[in-house]
Queue: 4 jobs
Job 1
Amino acid sequence: MTDKLECVGSDLCDELRGSINTSFTLTYQSDPPSRMIASTSHLALLADLSPLTAGHLLLLPKDHHVSFGHVVARLGSEIRSLLDRVTPRYTDTFGPPTIVEHGSSSTMNAACISHAHWHLVPVDGQRLCRLMEKDGLVATVLDRMEDLGSMALDDAQYFYCFDGHSHRVFAVDRKMRSQYLRSLMGEILGIPDPLWDYSLVVRKDLLRQTMRAFQGADQPMPGRDTGRGP
Ligand SMILES: [Zn+2]
Ligand SMILES: [Zn+2]
């Protein structure tokens, strides 16, 4: 079951359906053969194709949606259970992850609509939020992740940041520069401008390092989530 929309300018839907002709397979040539870290009924956790740092992951719904705002109410417990499963190893290896999303609205220019995904990156989330605020974006603190659903109800474009403690959402009411959040994370990680651009440098060694760190992490475990909502 999918929304009417399919991936535009991204082949995540194809990759999740098991296509062997994707950006990932073309870029990595079977080394490694897969970038899947973990998966549940409705979610996949992948290594980012063009990582900013080791530990740069993407969490995405297997069905096509334009933002996590559309799925948090239904998949909240499944999201939490998957994150609870991987976070200890993640934190031990890379440091605590910050979760970041640039959530699309369905009315954005079709070329900009992409498959909903959360970035997990071991950067200081509070510092990231401060950089957004410095650019004039205004944060609203959410009580819980599920409140992100209100952004989808309003069909608003937003930035979401979870620093491990607080859920913050920034309404985006203007055109932001391309790969805005990537550029901020690049700044925090000390990557020279504009080498945070995913198309300029593909740090394949970092993806391989990430995959090695999670080897064996997705073995089936008794009692893993059933995909039911809260
Ligand atoms: Zn898609
Ligand atoms: Zn992204």
Job 2
Amino acid sequence: MPTRKNFLRTSGLSILPAFIPFSESLASAKEINDTPPDQKFIKFYGDGIVHEPGDYLEILKQAHAEEPIQRDRYGSGGIVEKLEKKFCEITGKEKAILMPTGTMANQFAMNILSRENTKVIVHDQSHSYRDEADAAQSVFTKRLVPLGAGKPYFSFDELRSAIEGLPNEEVFRSPVGAVAIENPVRRADGRIVPIEEIKLISDYCRKNNIGLHLDGARIYMASAWSGVSIKEYASYFDTVYISLYKYLGASAGAVLCGDAATISKMPHQMKVHGGVMAGNFTNAAMAHHTLKTFDEKLKLCVKAWNELYPKLNRLTGIKISALNNGSNVYRMEVSREVNSKSMLDKLREFNIRMYPPDQNNVFMISINETILNQPAEDVVKAFTRSIA
Ligand SMILES: Cc1ncc(COP(=O)(O)O)c(C=O)c1O
């Protein structure tokens, strides 16, 4: 059975340890489920909170009491419309549309932006290229051209030379219609594509009438760590998709934003692909509710981490370092003398969860709003006792 892990092994990417994805392990579901609901824990994995069903319903009940949730009809009106308007404000785009998945948002954006052209340039490590079951090729008859193999992103120079070199590589002309950029890059441990590269790529694509799509599933993480606003990121792209479930609390969903002409084509695309759902208000209401306080929470989260990180680094046996162009993912190297299993077990007693390390006792940890659940001193104490 091919899994993400053995796909990586067979595709040769396993030689690049920093590129091994570690976010969506099934282990996380168990980790979460065996925590008593009254105990708030810190999880150093994932980008946000995954609500248990009971908590989900409770939060929606509160949200409904604060501001009655209006239902939508096939994605029109009610809380869905409110959420779409909110995303227009956040991204500065003219129009937004709720979709059932980010995969659909990426595929439709690449399909519409590339028009009649068959080629779409993507990053070799991107979700669009590796995790969407070849939909572009098999459903939309687009040829995805991957760039930046073995690197966290492709540069403007690489993009330009790939596009301008095409006439020498292929006899029959079939131009590039769109470029898609993922930011931050999940398979590169959340590394951020530098804004200077994005600006150059955007300028080039606009001048050459090439559509530019942002897979911004986790753009909030890039923005919180880079200081570049979501609106600024979005301004360089024709379309941007943001996930509703990575950190906005919904159980699924995506919003795609862009100009009115592009987004107006999406309802038909959704219908013919069976993606128009009768009622969408539960996911929309949860994301809308989370967004009310999310900016503030993320700021507190970054601040709390900036206080905690040097304190943990003062402990003997722990060395945490930021990644180059990193976002909320850090490398935590623990002395080889420390038994990682007993360290993890001990940390669990303090309500702190981490994924297991690699063979060198290096943990990749993700910072998310759960670090607000315990004061820094308690976390330092927990680590001190756990590595003793
Ligand atoms: C970067 C990125 N893009 C797109 C997606 C697809 O999202 P969905 O699960 O909503 O299809 C994911 C999901 O893991 C992702 O990590």
Job 3
Amino acid sequence: MMRFPTVSRREIADGVYTRSAVEADLPSIVTLLAQIHNDRPPLEPNEREIAAFHEILGSPFRGILVAEGDGLVGMLDLFIVANLTRGGRPWAGIENFVIDERHRRRGIGRGLLEVALGVARDAGCYKVQLVSHAKRDAAHGLYDALGFTAPVRGYRRYFDT
Ligand SMILES: CC(C)(COP(=O)(O)OP(=O)(O)OC[C@H]1O[C@@H](n2cnc3c(N)ncnc32)[C@H](O)[C@@H]1OP(=O)(O)O)[C@@H](O)C(=O)NCCC(=O)NCCS
């Protein structure tokens, strides 16, 4: 069975380092994630978020990469999915990718994504897949620059409760 690798601290942009998330990062992570939908940051993580964070950190197939400069300035959630096509090679997905708005356009997002691509490649994945709302021009500029293509039509259905 695979074990999601711990990413050791390495520089990805000037004075900014990536590493695997640890327990103490959760309050900064929920603050950062509020920027994805321009929400007001919560005062502290709620019980469901705490439980989800522990589940992610304990998963052998999933991990959160953070970018750290003067505090946490970015993150993404990378998960590896077992697969029965492509000769049984897994694929990787990325969610909750965000860079602090005060630190954008410094190459931090690119650096974080490149590390994630390396983890997925090393895990034997045949592709990395993510979805992005059509309005997210900055993200699309970055994905294009890193060789992602958008040949698919994605569907989602939200539940009311
Ligand atoms: C998308 C996001 C993560 C990019 O992070 P970032 O650290 O600013 O990106 P980088 O500085 O590494 O940019 C690398 C390249 O991506 C492209 N890019 C980044 N921001 C861009 C923008 N606003 N417009 C056009 N291209 C952009 C450029 O090619 C850029 O290279 P360059 O600066 O040399 O021209 C960041 O804008 C963000 O957090 N946005 C809000 C949340 C979000 O949309 N997340 C993705 C959800 S799918």
Job 4
Amino acid sequence: MSTTNVYAPRIAARMANIKVSSIYALLARVLDLQAKGIHVDSFTAGEPDFDTPPHVIEAAHRAMLAGDTHYTPVRGSLAMREAVREKFRRENGLSFEDDQVMVASGSKQIISHALSVTLEPGDEVLLAAPYWAAYPGMVYAAGGIPAIAMTRRENGYKLTPNELRSAIGPRTRWVMLNTPSNPTGAVYTEVELRELGAVLSEYPALLILSDEVYEKLSYTPERPVSLAKVCPELAGRILIANGLSKAFAMTGWRLGFGAGPSALITAMADLQAQTTLSPSSISQAAAVAALNGPSDAVKHMVNVYHKRRDLVMSLTANNPHVKVAKPDGAFYALLDVSQSLMRSARFRDSERPDVAFAGWLLEQHRVAVVPGSDFGANGTLRIAFATDELTIERGIGTLLESLSQL
Ligand SMILES: Cc1ncc(COP(=O)(O)O)c(C=O)c1O
């Protein structure tokens, strides 16, 4: 089809702030190089490099053959809602009534619904930077404005009570907490959550979004704990977003769930009814099998990520060109390369030195990393260690070598 004279519809003004992050341009270039048969050591994937466990796939197959191919209730099938409530009871020590849970097409949709049904124009959503790159766009799409609380590497990229208190303003409507974190792998301890909870209890009108999608991927003896469990006094205004994508290697199935106050869940479900209706019946059948079934596959994946995390730390230890806060969870490490970038005239003077460096690294050395400024962390690079050990050794070796030559 010719692209000339094609009618260009007027796009709503609110779309102006919804920027596609540089990740997508970088990913497109990686795919382009790979299609030409050029090898790239890529650390860009925000998803497991494992396939969905076979018993989960079999459950989906069985469900389809049994005719489970229709719409389900908007908030999710009864079996799935029960599996979600049982998961919270068993794994998090949290009891939710049926009207306090809902299922959606990914935890991202849960977050997006929550923002959409609560934000008035100009309301602020507080993000702890470095934050997941998608949050600001989701906030803008829902009519809000992202407000940033900057954390420090020295504190493991975790928000301190003082940083939280001083970032809350009169327009703050939501505080987003993501533990374990994308892009830093930071995991808040129970004590740290209690301290943040004490600050949050001073602001009774605030809503709190606890993004726990990486909950099962943790490398500490204690499992990550939910703010709702640590601070039951806040439970009436916490929304937990979680999903199947990361823990069960089910990103393509698009299934997530949320739990929180029933009035909020009802509004979110009403929005879902008018947008996507129910999530996929097939994915829900698979998710029931994942949540209720054996945990060996998840344990295996966590062990592999753990080994890779240790490998990343040993490769970067004592290297003068990068500083890394040890990730206790998820499958990301954020490398602070700001000092190396500042040494180089080539990158120092560009608008976003980390973006320029990531582009150069890909073109010159065929290593793909995500620039940290997409996560509100200029001068850093995110590597995802959801990739094999050979790639990790070779790619990080190349990266460190290139930094040493700046
Ligand atoms: C921090 C965080 N939250 C939520 C999501 C969304 O996951 P999904 O919608 O697949 O459940 C992601 C995906 O990368 C993420 O990194």
